[in-house]
Amino acid sequence: MSRSNRERTEQTRQALIAAGRRLFVEKGYAETATPEIVAAAGVTRGALYHHFEDKKALFRAVIECEAKAVAEAIEARSGSYDAPHAWLIAGTSGYFDAMMTQGRTRLLLIEAPAVLGSLASATIDAENAEATLRAGLAAMLPEAGAMLEPLTSLLSAAFDRAAIAIEAGAERRQYEQAIAVLLDGLADHLRR
Questions:
Q1: Which residues form the DNA-binding region (predicted)?
Q2: Cβ atoms of 100 and 40 closer than 8 Å
Q3: pLDDT at residue 3 is higher than 70
Q4: Distance of CA 173 to the CA centre of its chain
């Protein structure tokens, strides 16, 4: 395949993902039909099925892009910090900033588990935002040992609940402070 064909193929794929995202946010997964997606993307139905097995596969690609964007925002915000605690606090802010993108909380935390299943959704998270959290916790809490995985899972759930609450109108600063208290408490407890 020539470079221009590869570029056109990738442009078509990205157009489908962008159109799918827009419609999934606007209408929800269940209410979005594939003819609407292809019309919004300006491609044929055949192009959709060339790139994605079905609507669910397109939705998964949208979720993977969203999850990657969250992880990148966390890393961008926390990358300039050397101290693990400061890295995690900056990453917290990066996570909440990333989740402020219109529709992202609904897509990642409500629709994805419902459409893809909780295991597939958790796997995507584990490879993205949760992976950055795990790395930060491992650096901050080297004594966590076998507790690193459950601590990561529990804190990840806390972040997700906070994002849902913030989207519903709760005060973000209070949740950032609560995460800091949780992190400080974990560090204090494990160092005793």
A1: 33-52
A2: no
A3: no
A4: 20
